[in-house]
Amino acid sequence: MAKIKVAFQGERGAFSEVASKKFIGKNAMPVACSSFASLFDMVEKGKTKYGVIPIENSLIGSIHKNYDLLLERNLKVIGETYLRINHCLIAAKKVPVSKIQRVFSHPAALDQCRDFFDAHPTVAPISYYDTAGAVKMLSESGLYNAGAIASPYAAEIYKMHIIRKSIEDEKSNFTRFLLLAKKEVVVKGKTKTSIVFSMKNEPGVLYKALSVFALRDIDLSKIESRPLRKKAWEYHFYVDIEGSVKEERVKKALDHLGEITHFIKILGSYKMSSEKV
Amino acid sequence: MAKIKVAFQGERGAFSEVASKKFIGKNAMPVACSSFASLFDMVEKGKTKYGVIPIENSLIGSIHKNYDLLLERNLKVIGETYLRINHCLIAAKKVPVSKIQRVFSHPAALDQCRDFFDAHPTVAPISYYDTAGAVKMLSESGLYNAGAIASPYAAEIYKMHIIRKSIEDEKSNFTRFLLLAKKEVVVKGKTKTSIVFSMKNEPGVLYKALSVFALRDIDLSKIESRPLRKKAWEYHFYVDIEGSVKEERVKKALDHLGEITHFIKILGSYKMSSEKV
After folding, report:
1. ipTM attached to this prediction
2. Per-residue pLDDT tens digits for B32-55
3. Residues in chain A within 8 Å Cβ distance of B220
4. Which among A223, A237, A240, A276 is the top mutation candidate for probing chain B, defined by the most B β-carbons within 10 Å of its own β-carbon?
């Protein structure tokens, strides 16, 4: 079977790579990108068929850079999935935790494992640019008294050892990922649509905007605001609604929204994930 | 006149220190804190009378850590002000830009001066933990071929030279700061109230929540959502509304909001800033 190229941000073994395989299956050929902007470039230029981005984490909140890129660029959202974030302590050799003096990882991952560091005060958390990148660095450097916090998949990729499993403080730690492509796809079954819009700065205007969905019993699963860079204290609102742009009631709602907004962009209609998280 | 202690986060010369002086006047005695959490501690323990925090920047968006702390801790918001963010290139000596090889600053400040770095490709941007801290480091190290990006006030504090003024890409770059204290204050004139609430995850529930304000013509100037750490994909909503909790229509609106929410917390009623930004 031909391999299908999927761009993701980070080093091999990143949670985004795990999400790529979940979206595409075993034919996925993950292509590592150094930044989210270069990931969008890869898909726009057709160097990879798909791109996978994290959009929101249940503990940390939204990944704003990706909301900004969805607005600025012209890729379509064609899928969503959820991944349970399971942080492991990884090292080059099977050593007890007491032998480990420093642990490298992305600041967000270190922050999600505060209880581990409180319980092991002699272990110093050290910020690194990437979770899987920290495992890669350890595998290359041969440091034996240091560890990294990353996915179990990163340990597998770099042939390293898992010293402790699930060291995250909150087990209810999920990240929602989006699948991106140049063109929209035909969707069947339960569908979600992501849109972004901006409005005049007038009293009650957000209430009016949400009324176009509420009046038609269209459920809204997420709302996020981001500043308009050119106009201080005005915002873009990102909303996820149930239904597809092909449905009559969604079409009517978006028509109605058009009457009261400056700007609307449809980011995509895609199959709603059925996972209970 | 007795000095009034005000806690701020960062090194002396930070924009937050400038905001402290704007709130309190020349009797302000700014007290530097290493983190926002330690700033909240200082005010809660009565070590300083006030605290000043940045809450939102017109380009970057909300400072989520501070929204989380306002929820977790018990300080009252008693004032707001806006500051124009004016980034200067600062160095130990009056040298031409061509002599400067590296420029240190907080990543957010470096990101707001991309045009400057594009125009000067031989100057390398280097991430540092703080804008004013970078100026302090240069003043102590005596590095002559390096610069820092920070406020003009940081140059004054550390007796350094401003090489270039206003090197930020967007002149419309403002930060909104909040003044915090242990107890609420009596407010006269045009007032704003900040609240946070969470709701059941039911269709149309945000629309219903906003209706309590819209039905009473109470304007909403800001809405921000943050995840509930204990319940994946449920949110706290932070809103700023016009009016004071002492006003009858605001009281009624909050009563009404209580019927449809799990949880409400009033962060404070305070004088609305009259500045046009």
Report:
1. 0.80
2. 998 999 999 999 999 999 999 999
3. 203-204, 206-207
4. A223
